[in-house]
Write a structure and sequence with these properties.
mainly beta; 6-stranded antiparallel sheet; 5-stranded antiparallel sheet; 3 helices; 13 strands
């Protein structure tokens, strides 16, 4: 049976600023220019492995690009998204299609989102593809207070995910 430690070691995963562990596995050599990005140029796409253990959270953040999450192994996870109008959606990422889960999900650019593992004493291993490619200049990590002021109806979830 595979464990979180097995994947952390064998996929060379490192701590991520939003929570969990990651390793970049692909950065397209092709680039695209767009004025919405700092410095205007991004790689066409990037891909990472991302792992969360039970009790860890992918803190609420947003990107200026679309991000696709692909389930690989472990427990299903819930991705919480907050749209600009304050609508909350909970997406179950996992293999149980007959139980309301989906093996992949697209998070639209500028959507605020976070994630957590569904099963206690487990982990979730996913891949995330960002297009145009990931750049920390396009990454906004929210703190609980500022996000709760914007969306007070979601304060309890925000505090649970962001700590």
């Amino acid at each position: 049976m595979y464990t979180a430690d097995f994947f952390i070691k064998n996929l060379n995963l490192q701590p991520h600023v939003e929570g969990g562990y990651y390793s970049e596995v692909y950065r397209s050599p092709l680039t695209i220019s767009d004025d919405r990005y700092v410095n205007g140029t991004r790689n066409l796409s990037t891909t990472i492995y991302f792992l969360l253990e039970s009790g860890q959270h992918s803190k609420f953040h947003s990107l200026k690009s679309d991000e696709i999450w692909f389930y690989h192994c472990g427990s299903a996870m819930t991705i919480h998204t907050i749209d600009s109008d304050g609508s909350l959606k909970d997406i179950k990422l996992g293999p149980g299609i007959n139980n309301g889960q989906t093996p992949q999900f697209v998070i639209q650019a500028n959507t605020i989102f976070g994630a957590e593992v569904d099963t206690k004493d487990s982990f979730s291993l996913v891949s995330c593809m960002v297009s145009p490619g990931f750049d920390f200049n396009d990454f906004t990590l929210y703190n609980s207070d500022e996000l709760s002021k914007l969306y007070p109806q979601h304060t309890s979830l925000i505090k649970r995910i962001n700590g």
